[in-house]
Each structure stands twice: as C-alpha cells, then as structure tokens.
Design brief:
The protein is 67% helix and 2% strand. The protein has helices at 9-32, 44-50, 58-61, 63-71, 74-117, 125-130, 132-155, 158-171, 181-188, 207-210, 217-229, 245-248, 250-259, 264-269, 271-281, 298-301, 306-311, 318-342, 350-355, 357-378, 382-385, 388-398, 404-415; strands at 287-291, 294-297. The chain is an all-alpha fold and 416 residues long. It has 23 helices and 2 strands. Strands 1-2 form a two-stranded antiparallel ribbon. It folds into 3 domains: 9-191, no CATH class; 217-311, no CATH class; 318-415.
Length: 416
Amino acid sequence: MDFLSPQNQCGQTLLRHVASGNAVIAELLRLSDFIPPVFRLDNPADQRKYAAIILDFAYFKRSEYYDNVVDSSPELQDLDEEFRENHMDVLTRFYRAFESVHRYAQNLLRLLEDLEEGVFIQQTLDSVLANGDGKQLLAEALYLYGVMLLVVDLRIDGLLRERLLVSYHRYCHSEADMANLDEVCKLLRSTGFHAAPGAKRPPKYPEEYFARVPISSSFVKMLISRLRSDDVYNQIAAYPHPEHRSAALANQAALLYVILYFDPQMLEREQAKMREIVDKHFPDGWILSMYMGITVDLVEAWEPYRAARTALNNTLDTDNISLQAQRHVAKVVRLNTEIVNLLKQGVLHDQYVLDHVPKLLHVMRDANVTIRWLMLHTHRNARTDMHKQSKAVKDQVIAQGYNPKELFTVSVHVGG
C-alpha cells in the first residue's frame, strides 16, 4: 500500500501533522505583525499608565500582591477592565497560537510513541524512514517544530510573550481554556534571546530552548543520519550539473540545520560528521533560507559550536569565497546575454522550445541558481552585519564586482 494512500493511517496521520505545523507557523507570522504596541511598554507614558496591569512572569511569584495593587485602586480597576475589553480578543488569539505550538509538540511525541508501540499496523519508525514519503514527512515534522520555536523567538520577543500570557491568564476565567497554560508558559517563557542588532546571544541557545520538550535522541540521530546520506527530496536528478548540487540540496540543508539543534553534541563534538554535512550541503555557500524568507548566516549561527565552526572553515577560506563570488558574478553577464537573445521576438516559438528543451532548462537552472546565491550572500542583515566575521565575508563577496542592477536584469527575464 502506498504510504500516502487514504487507507494508510500512519501516512495520513503524519501528513495531517505536517500540514498543521505549517498552519501554526503561518498564524505565528501573521500575529507577529499585529502585536498591540502597548504591550511593549517602550515609552514612558505607557510605562506610567500600564505598569501595574501589564506584567511578565514575575506575576506568578507574587500574584496576590499584584492583584491587591489593582483591587485597592478604583482607577486601576477601571483601567484594568477597559484594557481587558479592548484586548481580550487578540490575547485569546495569541494564546491559541502559543498553545498550538505546545499541542504540536505533544502530538509529535504521541506519534513517535505510537510508532514505537506498533499502533500502526506493519509500520515502525524504521519502515517509515525507509519509505521516501515517510522519510520526508518525519524530517519535516521535527523541522517544523524547531522552526515554530525559532519564529516565536525571532518575531515575538520573550518579554512580550510573557506579558501576553500573563494578561491572558488574568483575564480568562475559563478553566477549560487555561488547561494547558502552565505547560505553554514553561515552553514559551523568555529565552533571553533578542533579535535586535547587537544583542548578545544567550549561552547554549537555542539548544536549551529546543530541549524544553524532550525529543527522543535516537529518533533525532536517525533523522540526521538520513539527511546526511540521502537525497531526501530527490532533487539531484533535476540539477545534474555539479555546480548546482548545493542548490539541489538547499531544502534538505534547511531541515538539517534546524534538526541539528536537537542534537547539539554533534554540533559541538562530532567533527567528522559535521565535516561530512558541510562538504555535502555547504561547500560553496554559508547562507541558507531556513523558512519563507528567514535566512541564516552559518558564520554567526555556528560560531559557538567547535565541530561545526571547524567544519565550516574550508568553505570560509578566503580563496574559496573569492572563487565562488567571482564564478557567480561572471555568470550574470553571460546569462543576461543568453536570456536577452532567447527572449527576442520570434525565438521562443513552439518548435524551437521542443527542439532545445535541454539547453533552455540548463539556462533557467543556471540563472536561478546564480540569482539565489547572489541574493543570499549579499543580503544586508542588521544583526549579522554587527558580527565582525560575517560582515567581512559579505564585503569580500561584494568586492568581487557584484552589481545588483545586472542581477535585477536576469531576475526580471527569468521571472517573466
């Protein structure tokens, strides 16, 4: 029976789980753009007015004291009631999103337990990982959970999360709605991470954050082993040119980057395995797209991990950086000329396309890979620009003759 057949309960359960993960991330990204500014308390007027009713997790240690402060003042009672009426809907939506992250993690643990205990007939963890679709979905299931945690920390600051959760706790009086509040608070309490440029990265971040809900280490290691050795998305056949190998494995590299944080010992100590990962996935690039435009600079991200940092040294060799940058910059001029010639009126008629499919596909692949590499490796990011080595590497790429106007010409023609 096909793994994704409607009659395959294991495949359908896993497919629904991954779909729900993408939905949760989409909701988190939407909500992050609509955080009520008052919860930031970033101006003196808001601090004076709302300091007594907008509280972080310190509230849970002295809840009676903070409640008495509000109850003893008619003005604060009125303000508190008005604040509840104005913000309860958005607080509920934020809490539902936060609760969904916790529920997703629990459902993933339950799914792994079911596979271990033989709930799904003729399906075990080994058999699912041996199946192409099953392997993809299991890797995505864990990856999406990691992305949720990173997106929450990146887009909704830890102190903001605490204030939102405490406000929901104070205003919600339904025990059913607050059944998981303690667990949600434990999972999403502040990590100390701040996305602001120049903010110092907390020690052992994000591995301690990822460990708040323990995931089976044997499961994580099995996934990493598959991602190290296999072409999970079967993309290498679609990118036959050796120079396009890292682009073909780009989606798999994003999965691997996130999942490695569930096994930080590999990042820190297992240099041979990290060297294998870098040689396969990052031989000519050090910037990856983690999820929907969220990029990661491995120079900065892997700096705290000895094995990962050492494995990346060959990629970050000065000669290799110059070689890769020169190669992609030189392609821009050639590709512009080729694409302009192809787009001349009367060239791309039906018969020409049918007769030259391999050539046209090669040009499109080459153009897309070139655009992708240059956009990723020259993109200015305020946070990574504060990192000395990241900025130096990026400046070295740009110094090889990168011209964004020429790149724009290629992208317009390829994109139509």
